[in-house]
Amino acid sequence: MKTKKTDRFTNPTRRTIVKGLAATPLVLALGANKLGAQELSQMSSNTQSSNSEFVNGVSDSQIVLGTSAAFTGPSRGLGIELYRGAMAYFQDVNSKGGVHGREITLTLYDDGYQPDPAVNNTTKLMRDDKVFALFGYVGTPTVTRVLPLLKKFQEESFLLFFPFTGAQPQRQLPYGPFAFNLRASYRQETGGLVENFVKVGREKIGVFYQADAYGRSGWAGCREALSKHNLKMVGEATYTRGTQYTASLKEQVEWFMRDKPDAIVCIGAYAACAAFLRDAVDGGLQVPIANLSFVGSENLLKLITDTHDNPEQYSQFLVNSQVVPSYNDLSLEGVQQYDEFMTKNAPSAPSHVTSKDEEYKTFDRSFVSLEGFLNAKLMTEILTRIGPEPTREGIEDAVFTIQDLDLGIGETVSFNEDRRQGLDRVYYTIVENGSFVPLNEWTAASNAWTEAAGS
Amino acid sequence: MIKITRLFQWTIFGVIGLFGILGFANAIVTLTAIDRDLTRETRENSQNIAKAIADSNVDILLNSDLSTLQSRIDQMLPLLGSNGYIYITDEHNEIIAHTFVPNIPEEISSSEPTEGLIERTLKGKGDFFEVSHPILAGVGGNVHILIDQDDVSLLIQSAMGNQVWPLAITFLVAIVLGLFLVNLAARPIQQLLHYAVALAKKENVDEPQNEKLLVRKDEAGDLARLYQYFALVADPNRSGIEAK
Questions:
Q1: Could you tell me if A335 and A329 are in contact, meaning their C-beta atoms sit under 8 angstroms apart?
Q2: CA distances from A142 to A67, A118, A137, A397 (A)
């Protein structure tokens, strides 16, 4: 390993950032986020692998993490917001000199939330870009297909950090040892939702889910949670991944109308789940409609709000589980920091991987970007603990030194051989005055849903 | 345009008919074979896919990792054509993974466990072949593959179309070739007729084409020379004929 040149990074200028970026295509120095799209596209076409300074994603000046996520398509909001949250933190780290003098940079690829591109992107990240680690992937169908690659290249010690999915495959054998998760699992989210619905007497629970690995993961979680109460699902319906908000989901609603559930748990992405909420309420299926954290709560609510004069008519039935606390809860130190960094760094969408044909307006704050922020915070802590001469082989040991780490959200994080998931807590939210607020009183909420349905 | 000699009209009709019968018989044999082989192949492929899923996902099923199982069957789905489905039942015949949108058809959710190959009609989706393969000899459940019969029919029609065109083209080429050959055979007769008329009318007897006919060494030449001989015998004083 070459000698560090820490002085170069104490006050990185735009010039040094772009110079650093020249080593990799599609690599975004986090400090360069404020650069224009044109400047980004003019970056060098040299690859990192052709630059002898880089060894397994590490040079004297950078540590490169690789990301494949949805930056285009109907679920692009998830990839973009998760990235923005991570950027808010990494930019701050880099502005203070990086980790042991190295800037943290991300090599980004868009997979559009489709498995095959995710596999191709990951192959590129591992074989061509030779990144240090994989970070911030989005989605179950994508991650599930990528996991075998980690096993295939296990001799090169690639690890996947904090994917935006609560599915089981990266939490259990045979692929569990190749990933670390921060968020709670879908089993925990669906288990919590079912438990709370049952507690308030809503035992007839239907499941609306995406017809793929993600949907099946949530479906399995609901099934398991219901079986603990000797209950079975009351109705289920699926939709095709990539369904747009403009699509009609009345057929699915009709299935539920026949079964008349007391509540519906949705395992989907925001566009389809918003369309389902719209068609359900319009079709008279006025029961609480729950969504998991993956849905992208703000994106869902925005679709409903932007297309209806009276969005409360729909949003009053929403109950979303979250795996991070409310971004409005500024009593938490970590949320305060997120709020401050999002304002200070104002991360934008990664213009070089998003589509100019797809308009996207970023959110000031969101659960997804808060999760991205916490992911980046923990990743930085891990990179710090690896030490000044980072190797992929040393990552796991560094992660296992994390015990009772406080990320500032009221729940500590610990890892060991048997525990590769940092957080377990699930939060529940409902919509009040156009934004998501914590749901603490399920009985009162249930009464409100009943009343709303009656009116 | 090929002109058909009156003498060979029936011959050429016979040739066309014969080619037609041969082509038709060939088409029937070929298309029947295609239908049989493709239907069998499609079913075998379905059975192989079902077997592959059943044999390769035992650990996943035992680990109750349904999302990975779903991912595997999603990967297999494109192999089943535009309207194929896969569903997996556990040992209690409960469907634990499937690819139906918007829901599991009632014909399936309410049916008894099936084995081997059956035919099914799903309301709003069409007619299907369904093949099943047991997981761990059935104690782990079953994999079911549904292939749209319309897809199979389209595949067969496409393959048949591919066969029919070459057959039709061969048939047409054979007819044209037959017409050409018959015409080739009829040409000396037409020349003989022309020469006989010329002899009778005592006009244009010495045209080059008649000269060529008279020097031919085949039956047409012999006949031409015989006509010439008869003409000289009938009128020894006639001019313009040079005995060959």
A1: yes
A2: 12, 6, 8, 27
* Distance from C-alpha of B129 to C-alpha of B134, rounded to nearest angstrom: 17
Joined together, the tokens standing for residue A337 give: 């920091």
Cβ atoms of A306 and A317 closer than 8 Å: no
Instruction: List, as one string, the DSSP characters of A206-259.
Output: EEEEESSHHHHHHHHHHHHHHHTTT---S-EEEE-TT--TTS--HHHHHHHHHH
pLDDT digits (tens, 9 = 90+) for A162-191: 999 999 999 998 899 999 999 999 999 999
At residue A115, what are phi and psi to the nearest 5 degrees?
-60, -45
B82 touches chain A (CB under 8 A): no
Q: From chain A, which residues contact B within 8 Å (Cβ)?
A: 115, 140-141, 144-145, 167-169, 172-174, 211-217, 219-220, 236-240, 249, 251-252, 255
Per-residue pLDDT band at A315 (split at 50, 70, 90)? very high
To the nearest whole Å, the CA of A170 is away from the closest chain B CA by 10
At B31-82, the pLDDT tens digits run 899 889 988 888 888 889 899 888 887 777 777 689 989 999 999 999 888 8
Q: What's the predicted TM-score (pTM) here?
A: 0.80
Chain A environment of B65 (Cβ under 8 Å) = 168-169, 172
Cα separation, A240 vs A268, whole angstroms? 10
Residue-level length of chain A:
455
Instruction: Check whether A272 has a pLDDT greater than 60.
Output: yes
Give the residue from A140, A144, A236 with the most B CB atoms within 10 Å of its CB, the best one to mutate.
A144
Is the model's pLDDT at A43 over the cut of 70? no
Are A153 and A128 contacting, i.e. CB atoms less than 8 angstroms apart?
no
pLDDT of residue B242: 63
Q: Is B101 on the interface with A (CB under 8 A)?
A: yes
